[in-house]
Amino acid sequence: MIHTKFQAPAIDIKHVYYLMMLDNLGSISKAANALGVAQPSLSENITRLEKKLNTRLAIRSPRGVTLTEAGRYLALEGKSLVDVADKIANSLRLLGQDMSGTVSIGLPPSLSQIVSVPLAETSRLELPGIKLKLTEGLTGHIQEWLMDETLDFGFVYANPQNQGYPDHPGDRRGNVPRFGP
Fold first, then answer.
1. Which of 22, 62, 79, 165 has the smallest number of CB atoms closer than 10 Å to its CB?
2. Residue 81 to residue 79: CA distance in whole angstroms
3. Among 65-74, 80-89, 140-149, whose mean pLDDT is lowest?
4. What is the pTM of this model?
């Protein structure tokens, strides 16, 4: 069904999970304890779900709670909703995992004076799991270090006509910053 206005889903997945726990444990006190919520809060959430769906989901008695046919159906079908939500959350956690490791960068002295501190500060703030290893060197040394993989990245000034690098726009003197081998 396509809605012309944004509308919240009729079922809150948290309430479905609460109902599933209630079904598994058979009592509000046990479910509330397992969920880490107060008993009145759990009861209120189940009641809210019942009102939203306009159907009775659970029958409360002194001996515990029994789900109605609608409650059992929602608990059973709701498991797939909860499983999908868990899968999405896990995938997002993996995507959002912090990068970690050491990254070595070679810089010529003139560039190092300008970018070393800002680069280190930005890396520390935005990529806390990355340890930067900044190395100063002349173009020839940086190129060698890139070729023998001592460095991960390198900034060099080179004349593109004399190097095996693809052409990149340079400054007015013909100096071109280079990235990598």
1. 62
2. 5
3. 80-89
4. 0.52
Which of these three, 78, 95, 112, is where a domain ends?
A: 95
For 154, half-sphere exposure in the C-beta direction (CA atoms, 13 angstrom radius) is 24
CATH number, domain of 86, equals 1.10.10.10
Please give the angle made by the CA atoms of 89, 37 and 47, to the nearest 5 degrees. Answer: 90
Q: Which domain holds residue 123?
A: 101-179
Of the three residues 67, 95, 123, the one that is the final residue of a domain is 95
Do 107 and 89 sit in the same domain of this protein?
no
Q: Residue 153's closest CA among 129, 174, 130?
A: 130
Q: What is the DSSP letter of 160?
A: G
**Helix H segments across the chain?**
13-25, 28-35, 39-53, 69-95, 109-126, 139-147
Residues 53 and 125 in one domain: no
* Domains in the chain, number: 2
The pair of three-digit structure tokens given for residue 149, joined into one six-digit string: 């993989």
Q: Report how far apart, in Å, the C-alpha atoms of 96 and of each of 93, 99, 126, 177 are.
A: 5, 9, 13, 31
CB 71 within 8 A of CB 18: no
What does the alpha-carbon distance between residue 71 and residue 20 come to, in Å, rounded to a whole number? 9
Let me know whether 85 and 109 are in one domain. Answer: no
Report if residue 91 sits inside a domain.
yes
First to last CA, the chain: 54
